[in-house]
Amino acid sequence: MTEFTITRAVRMPDPFRIERFLSNPKLGPRLLFFSGGSAANGVAQHLKRYTHNSIHLVTPFDSGGSSQGLRLAFNMPAIGDLRSRLMALADETVLGHPEVFRLFTHRFSKSAAQADLAGELEAMIAGTHPLVGAIEQPMRTLIQNQLGMFHAARPKSFDLRGASIGNLILAGGYLNQNQQLEPIIFLVSKLVGVQGTVRAVTDDNLHLGAELANGDVVIGQHFLTGKEHPPLVSPIRDFFLNRGLKGKDPAHSVFPDRNRSLIGSADLICYAPGSFYTSLVANLLPEGVGKAIARRTVPKVYVPSIGWDPETGDMSLADKVHTLLTYLLKDAGPDCPAHKLLTCVIVDRSVPEEETLEISARGIAVLRLDLVSKVSAPYYDPVPLCEALVSLT
């Protein structure tokens, strides 16, 4: 197969492309997102109107929130972000499986007694719980089996309060599939009619670590985000994968061939909004990511987050672009031209032009668009953002 580059003028937004994709999203473009967390879920949910072929490579390295208990109990990768993206892309029409969606998005009470929650879980496994009983066969049995596997393996000390049922099903499936994420993600995608593709960027059971400018070393995503713990006191100087949570022990991870193939099929690559290091850069750390991106001659777009990000502190937009390229170049090689890794930065029109001059000077296009509405502020309005992305394909 021979690949060659065609250059065309782009109208932003492109009404012809938008209308074409809205009329038949099953034939929509393959937009690939590097992301994690919940920041891009709203965009993903709205994107279903334009394409059922989007691709989402999600970080499995979180160590806080709903994933923390499961990681500690079963020594497994984080699944919370994977579950939330699967639900964002689930088919919400009558052709989907709304009863499965309701179960996956259900959480146990945070205030109920452990014994009561254990009884509720056992009712789900037995199929007598109304949320499970509403699901048709054979899907019901598949879900009961995964919950049963989780229940049989969970430590007695495992706290069920506030637990996401979707996470428990994924954890049970992970244990049931010889500690592999891919088979259970595939199964859940079919159960809820995911209109797109969701994959962990790697199956490796690793954590995130950072060396700060003041020499401190911080291990664990939950200590880096500034959400569950106080913000970092010094900028991040180096960001890396780590084997565990008990001290610095850098790890090596390889980008799976199946994900390289997904990049090879993408019509556009997007570095999506979210926590800069733990949701975006984390996905670029496995060996082979930068090289795979550099091989593709498609638009590669960075959409920076809006507002304050505790992980980046006072970093300017140009600083973020420089850091993004730095981590991509670690794998792609120092001689790789920047435009092979990043072709465009999309920002809201409220961003002052002087903040983008340094980016333009590097040969990277900057698109300043109306991306924040009165209704969406202080977040992106998913409609113009999705329209901008599909217009670039």
UniProtKB/TrEMBL annotation:
Q: What is the lineage of its organism?
A: Bacteria, Pseudomonadati, Pseudomonadota, Alphaproteobacteria, Hyphomicrobiales
Q: Which Pfam families does the record associate with it?
A: CofD (PF01933)
Q: Which NCBIfam families match?
A: CofD_rel_GAK
| Coiled coil stretches, renumbered | none
- Cited SUPFAM superfamilies: CofD-like (SSF142338)
Domain of life the protein comes from: Bacteria
For this protein, the record's InterPro entries field holds:
CofD, CofD-like_dom_sf, CofD-rel_GAK
Q: This protein is called what? A: GAK system CofD-like protein
